[in-house]
């Protein structure tokens, strides 16, 4: 990485507790997003709790700000719900942003999540296949388990204690709120999920542990890609937040 490139990544106007996990030679990067931080602002009032403390161009899907070298841009490649923590991808090159967005549309990106849930799955390894319905109304997304959109995920039980279990979830499809709805459908609501979860148990859990977040974490993202005639591999991992371990 050149001194100029290093300066770009070292001076990003990162949001609250957002960190840079890794940057490759093409300007593709992974950031660690804390729970409660927005992938991008939906309106001006959202700016203080967004991924970057910078203006966001909705049509171009990039953040922009002015630095010592002039205007800077950072393209957002995917999104996480504000309540979900972990790996989120960005890049500093517009051409690469187009390549990566096609990668996502073609389902060529492998993502792994961890979820703390109420209950315990009947077996330690399962393939979940469902048909979902996704609706967008007034800027909000709501997904149900009664629809026609295929959704598939791999689930592995990592450990369980008491009335909770820690799951490894790998979505094969990428539907909005897919993991949250698939967990809830199987009687395994994600702890702290304020939309699809068990509200009474959420309140009790928050009272006992003082943790009020949703316990879904984007743990790892990896893939191979071609850019300007070169074959590249990218992998990033965001460590599991400590509250996941202390809650079990």
Q: What does this entry look like structurally?
A:
- By secondary structure, this protein is α+β, with helices and mostly antiparallel strands.
- The protein folds into two domains: 3-106, Alpha-Beta Plaits, CATH 3.30.70; 113-216, Pseudouridine synthase (2-Layer Sandwich).
- The protein is built from five helices and twelve strands.
- The model has no long low-confidence stretch (mean pLDDT 93).
Name the shape in a single word.
Answer: globular
String of helices and strands: HEEEEEEHEEEEHHEEH
- How large, in whole angstroms, is the Cα Rg? 19 Å
How many domains? The number is 2
Name of the CATH architecture of the largest domain:
2-Layer Sandwich
Tally the helices: what do you get? 5
- Backbone structural class: alpha+beta
The CATH class name of the largest domain reads Alpha Beta
Fold blueprint:
Layout: H1 3-10, E1 19-23, E2 28-33, E3 55-57, E4 62-67, E5 70-76, E6 85-91, H2 94-105, E7 110-118, E8 125-137, E9 140-161, E10 164-171, H3 178-185, H4 199-209, E11 216-227, E12 230-237, H5 242-247
Parallel strand pairs: 6-11
Antiparallel strand pairs: 1-2, 2-6, 3-4, 4-5, 5-6, 7-10, 7-11, 8-9, 9-10, 11-12
């Amino acid at each position: 990485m050149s001194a100029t490139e290093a300066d770009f990544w070292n001076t990003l106007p990162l949001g609250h507790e957002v960190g840079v996990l890794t940057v490759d030679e093409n300007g593709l990067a992974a950031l660690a997003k804390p729970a409660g931080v927005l992938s991008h602002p939906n309106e001006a009032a959202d700016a203080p709790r967004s991924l970057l403390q910078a203006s966001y161009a909705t049509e171009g899907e990039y953040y922009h700000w002015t630095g010592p070298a002039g205007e800077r841009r950072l393209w957002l490649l995917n999104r996480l719900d504000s309540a979900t923590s972990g790996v989120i991808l960005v890049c500093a090159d517009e051409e690469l942003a187009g390549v990566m967005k096609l990668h996502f549309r073609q389902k060529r990106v492998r993502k792994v999540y961890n979820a703390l849930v109420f209950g315990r799955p009947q077996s330690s390894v399962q393939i979940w296949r469902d048909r979902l319905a996704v609706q967008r109304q007034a800027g909000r997304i709501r997904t149900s388990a009664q629809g026609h959109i295929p959704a598939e995920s791999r689930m592995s039980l990592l450990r369980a204690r008491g009335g909770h279990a820690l799951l490894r979830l790998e979505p094969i499809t990428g539907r909005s709120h897919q993991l949250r709805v698939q967990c809830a459908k199987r009687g395994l609501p994600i702890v702290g999920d304020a939309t699809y979860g068990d509200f009474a148990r959420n309140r009790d859990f928050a009272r006992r542990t003082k943790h009020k977040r949703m316990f879904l974490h984007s743990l790892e993202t990896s893939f191979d890609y071609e850019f300007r005639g070169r074959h590249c591999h990218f992998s990033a991992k965001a460590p599991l937040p400590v509250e996941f371990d202390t809650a079990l």
